[in-house]
Amino acid sequence: MNGLVEISKHIRLVRTMFNPEKRKRIPLSEPLLYGNEKEWVLRCLESNWVSSSGPFVEQFEDEIAQSVNAPHKKSVVTASGTAALHLALLTAGVKPGELVLVPTLTFIATVNAINYVGAEPLFFGSDSRLCMDLNSLEEFLQNECRKEGAHFVHKSSSRRISAVMPVHVLGFTVDVFRLRSLFTDSSVAILEDAAESMGSLVKSPITNDWVTSGTIGDLGCYSFNGNKIITSGGGGSIVGNNQEWLKRCKYLANQAKDDALFFEHHSVGYNYRMTSLEAALGIAQLKNLSTSIERRTRIHLQYRNHLKNADNVEVIEGLSTEQPNYWLTAVRIKNWNLDQLRSGIFKLQELGIEARPVWTLNHTQAPYRKCATFKPQSSEADYPKILCIPSSSNLTEEEVGFVADNVVRIAAH
Amino acid sequence: MNGLVEISKHIRLVRTMFNPEKRKRIPLSEPLLYGNEKEWVLRCLESNWVSSSGPFVEQFEDEIAQSVNAPHKKSVVTASGTAALHLALLTAGVKPGELVLVPTLTFIATVNAINYVGAEPLFFGSDSRLCMDLNSLEEFLQNECRKEGAHFVHKSSSRRISAVMPVHVLGFTVDVFRLRSLFTDSSVAILEDAAESMGSLVKSPITNDWVTSGTIGDLGCYSFNGNKIITSGGGGSIVGNNQEWLKRCKYLANQAKDDALFFEHHSVGYNYRMTSLEAALGIAQLKNLSTSIERRTRIHLQYRNHLKNADNVEVIEGLSTEQPNYWLTAVRIKNWNLDQLRSGIFKLQELGIEARPVWTLNHTQAPYRKCATFKPQSSEADYPKILCIPSSSNLTEEEVGFVADNVVRIAAH
Lengths: 413, 413
Description:
The structure is a homodimer. By secondary structure, chain A is an alpha/beta fold. The first copy, chain A, folds into 2 domains: about 5-30 and about 290-410, Aspartate Aminotransferase, domain 1 (Alpha-Beta Complex); about 35-285, Aspartate Aminotransferase, domain 2. The first copy, chain A, has 13 helices and 16 strands. The first copy, chain A, has helices at about 5-20, 35-45, 55-65, 80-90, 110-115, 135-145, 175-180, 245-255, 275-285, 290-305, 340-350, 375-380, 395-410; strands at about 75-80, 100-105, 120-125, 145-150, 150-155, 160-165, 190-195, 200-205, 210, 220-225, 235-240, 315, 320-325, 330-335, 375, 385-390. Chains A and B meet through helix 2, helix 4, helix 5 and helix 9 of A and helix 2, helix 4, helix 5 and helix 9 of B.
């Protein structure tokens, strides 16, 4: 880097640091509206179909299914990604006291959904891309479980394992093809938490085709929360290979109405419907999903370029068998500990940079501290080093540079 | 009624019956948009605050609190009325295995919320306005319960009664003042299900003031679903006298974030947030709440007038101590049984009239058949006679007349 560039950067940094009023806040991940949202939302209002009935919900379901090339061309939209996960666990028949295998490194919603059905999470560590470590999962199944017919039973607790929830963290993708092979001919449901990975692709080892994350397991759940790559305000959706389960998700999301006129209900249902207004916004946003992925990919590449010579800072990258949607770019600061992470984050926040750690590991959260784990040490070791950095679809290269420079500066202390 | 009017009515009926293409469907209760919704929703889109953060949610919460004159000037908005009920039960500390007293005549959402927290409903019958029968509740507490300190314990099951959920059915109001006096100095939480009674008033026997339903118990829950008197697409809100509980509702509705930056969670939370888009719609609709109540009151009075001479058909009316919002008008057809109810409804549906029974009684629904009851016979006897009739805020007097005439005609067979 030549001296002049270095000096001009330094001036910019200093100027920003000492002129707080000139600082623009750079959010982690905010919604980007492309302009067509107005038209769709107005169309919805004009139709009077503002609630959960009507054509917008169905259209959004159809277009999601098309967009991710969903099995059976079907998706079910829900009030939130959390609702989608809860419905997936319910329809998979996960029972109180059974075990659900899940990474400890994920937003707590994944784990709360397990709690809602009365089951117990069993936590795993993560690999280089922050996703559930399938090597230790394989080891766990071989050494810590016994097979009873189609069922996996955890030897030490004698509990049945009823589901596994791979989480596609930050848009990276768990190798669900490999995961599936670990559970061949078993009763264990594979429920993908694809909240962060709408549009991420995984290479099928069978066909060599690129397949969309969320569509490989029995069910897969997306989120359209405001911080996600596209948004419907709030909301989620479910896709998957098990068509009967998808039907049941739809049924349970609408208070399990067996007879809508006479209000007969054979099951305990939920109000997990998406509204038409949200669906209309979602339809508009979905039309720009590929643009948003392109933009976030470009931002990721810009960060990679800006940080390529930083000794201490490593951009977290995917594997050759995946095309992440790059929802969030994260870096690993190799020598950081928890104190450095905390102080680094506060320093960046002071500069208007909304950087964040990944989530406090779930096996250390109060409600789940007593739950079983298997080799969570990989996540424990990685957690203090990981910093999620601003990745909104409308981030400018200048902002990327500003964030990258400050991350390097703060990582050096 | 004079002969000419009679003949002209008859001609109109016959014409409609034999010209199906001329029939306009008359829905039970559809949203009425007043025009200001566009402005608010566009304002929301333009602000980029489309998700669950931002000023629209707070403004809606403030304006709801103001509109119902809520204790502490506070309300918490939620993703649905069901979510509001669930949060109310959670924050009231209702535990698995405990009993919650509830009318059998209500939409199943009330009862499902009890199921979500693992508690057991105990079902009561209803009075002349379809609301929980407080006389039998009083009898139940005297004869079937014992007091252990502040706790009511159900003698035959030895279970503790932890909450009572009066439901303000169709906009009529349970006398929560009387209810409260039955539970003086007890640990039983009073959680009003005011989903259908936004804006209904009850006369306080203490001050003689008119008080809004939902604000008298410990917590009260409204719904803004599409079929309600005003709508935010979907959504609900919670108000009430227990300020600590309201804070906890807000906390639990947002995944129980104790530290939003470091994602620390000391409790199991939920994603029960309302989106800004819904809040913006709700703000616009709330401005017309009193107009909607006036319109539905006028419709109710028109029905009353049209049906005043019908021998067999009685419009269900409130007491002198309440001002219902008249969300839905319902009639009681005195000699009807279940078969007549079913065939009557189908005949009305064929004419494009969306008439409906009240809800299949919850103590007869598959998930709750084994739950305890106390004198549900009043609801059992009433259920086959009750017909909910179209009550949308934009119903014309001609439509009211058409519905009323056909109800009379069909009730006579």
